[in-house]
Write a structure and sequence with these properties.
CATH superfamily of the largest domain: Phosphohistidine domain
Shape: elongated
Number of strands: 8
Structural class: alpha/beta
Largest sheet: 8 strands, mixed
Order of helices and strands: HHHEEEEEHEHEE
CATH architecture of the largest domain: 3-Layer(bba) Sandwich
Strand content: 15-25%
Radius of gyration: 22 Å
Number of domains: 2
Number of helices: 5
Strand order of the largest sheet: 1-8-7-3-4-5-6-2
Distance between the termini: 56 Å
Low-confidence stretches: none
Helix content: 25-40%
CATH topology of the largest domain: Glucose Oxidase, domain 1
CATH class of the largest domain: Alpha Beta
Mean pLDDT: 88
Length: about 200
């Protein structure tokens, strides 16, 4: 694979730019295109105006990237399969991890709400990424608006052995926080459940 050597070379370049005072963090190099790095490398020593321009560019791209966090890159409705909803079925999606579990739904929109999920809750999210992985230790099941069997949430749910339903499209909107639900990860259904007395 060519990707690891390119990444190592980019990180080395990022390290040199940090040492030169151009970047604050090595990984900021990934906010620059190759042609921009090549043009900057020809300015020796780096001029203050060029440094300010690079810093401004990196800051803009960082903000833009952060604005895309936890947002699907394609409209999930394009991937939805039409399915017949049976009695008691609240949502249907794709099986992400087999099994059945029930508990209260805990809707978590982003990292600022991670502390709201308690042990025994069912994690309901718009999308997940590696930063969400610790939540899977507490959840008894997972319901995600986007994704399929190869998405982050499905893979991690299978690793933890908890049921997951992917691609519900409207799970975070249709389910209520604290609502008791049953997740049937084998069939890809989210059903009504009664809270134990």
């Amino acid at each position: 694979m060519v990707q690891p050597p390119i990444r190592r070379a980019a990180l080395e370049l990022g390290n040199r730019l940090v040492e030169a005072g151009v970047l604050d963090d090595v990984e900021e190099v990934f906010h620059l295109r190759l042609d921009e790095l090549e043009a900057f490398a020809e300015i020796r020593p780096p001029k203050e105006a060029a440094i300010a321009e690079v810093r401004s560019l990196v800051a803009r791209r960082k903000r833009k990237r952060q604005s895309f966090a936890n947002k699907p890159m394609i409209d999930p409705r394009l991937l939805a399969l039409s399915s017949t909803r049976g009695d008691g079925v609240l949502l249907s999606g794709t099986s992400g991890s087999p099994g059945v579990a029930q508990g209260p739904a805990k809707i978590v929109h982003d990292v600022s709400e991670f502390g709201n999920l308690r042990a025994g809750d069912i994690l309901v999210a718009p999308v997940t990424n590696p930063a969400w992985t610790p939540l899977f230790q507490r959840a008894v099941a997972v319901v995600v608006d986007t994704g399929g069997s190869a998405s982050h949430a499905a893979i991690v749910a299978r690793e933890y052995g908890i049921p997951a339903v992917m691609g519900t499209i409207t799970g975070t909107k249709d389910l209520e926080d604290g609502q008791w639900i049953q997740v049937d990860g084998s069939r890809g259904f989210v059903l009504r459940a009664e809270e134990p007395k």
